[in-house]
Amino acid sequence: MNPASLIPLAEPLPIPWAWFDILLIVTFAAHILFMNALLGSAAIGLFHALRGKHGIAHDAGQKLPPLLALTINLGVAPLLFLQVNYGHFDYVSSVLMGGWWLAVIPALLVSYYGFYTYKFGFDAMSAGKRNLLYLISVAGLLYVGFMLTNNTTLMLIPEAWTQYFDNASGFLNWGDPTLFPRFLHFMVGALAIGGLFIALLGEVRENDEYIDTGMKWFTHATLLNLVIGVWFLISLPREIMLGFMGNSLPATLTLMASLVSAAIMLMAGFNKRPKQTAVWAVLTVFFMACTRHWVRTLFLEPWYRMETTPVTHQYGSFYLFLGFLIAGSILVAYMLKLYFKSRQRRA
């Protein structure tokens, strides 16, 4: 069977596709930053808790429920923008995964309530129960991350979709050589940002131990992630890998920008400057989100080009979106201003 026959037709777009790609990249970068802070700080807290040191686990645990809520909310926007431009690939891969994909919601709920129980029941539980609850919650997040990685890789290779005719109950993308390096690249990156989050927490509280511990996790995880990034790059199909080595100028430039930004970020990390490191971390994550976009574009190029999608030039919904975005941003900024004012008064 020709895999191209399994790809649904793209729906016409109301405005040029580039707008949706830009919004996808920006919102995905924001989502990943919060996800990394959430999962990374939770994993680091669990590591220290299992060694009998509950300080980081307790303090990070107080931040995990709101971090998870923000991560989920910030994940909605990139998912919607992905479905606008690439929904005819993403929808198919989601359906093909079947129950594996549907189980993402229960896994998130388990993690969410687990972190809430940990936060509010910390003093009432024994160390063993706390660690078990923490472990289950982190495992739920790892499951969600692995399923998302499966989905985003499966949508890129329509030739793998024919497995459905041998396993109609749902399957995972085990045969893709990029699956594990891609997943580990995200997870080790989460450890790095999680360490940075703990260091920033230490700086706010003037806790040198948290700064030292957090920056150590950050620098070591980032160095390891550079190695995993090379593994991910060489696991790509040859034509796509060469795209990042000069055959595609935008893909090559975004990768180079990511590496330069990561190098400066690492220098700030080794100098134990959490705030400066955080600025470069945001830029690095943004450049990596751009690089990820080019990976997707190069994978889908044999099957689909965005330039071929019809555009109706109906800008009404876009202007409405921008209006609500601006108004919402102003309201959020005002709420944050009131929040920090109230904290200063209590201090």
How would you describe the overall organization of this protein?
The longest helix is centred in the first third of the chain and has 34 residues, at 17-50. Helices cover 77% and strands 0% of the residues. It has helices spanning 17-50, 55-61, 64-97, 99-102, 104-120, 127-154, 179-204, 208-235, 238-247, 249-270, 274-300, 316-346. It contains 12 helices and no strands. It folds into 3 domains: 36-168, no CATH class; 177-309, no CATH class; 310-347. By secondary structure, the chain is an all-alpha fold. The radius of gyration is 21 Å and the shape is globular.
Question: What fraction, in percent, of the residue positions are helical?
Answer: over 70%
Task: Give the averaged pLDDT, no decimals.
Answer: 93
Report how far apart the termini are: 68 Å
Structural class: mainly alpha
Low-confidence stretches: none
Task: Output the helix-strand order.
Answer: HHHHHHHHHHHH
Shape: globular
Helix count, per DSSP? 12
The largest pleated sheet is described as: none
Cα-based radius of gyration, to the nearest Å: 21 Å
Number of strands: 0
Number of domains: 3
DSSP strand content? under 5%
Summarize the structure.
By secondary structure, the chain is mostly helical. The protein is built from twelve helices and no strands.
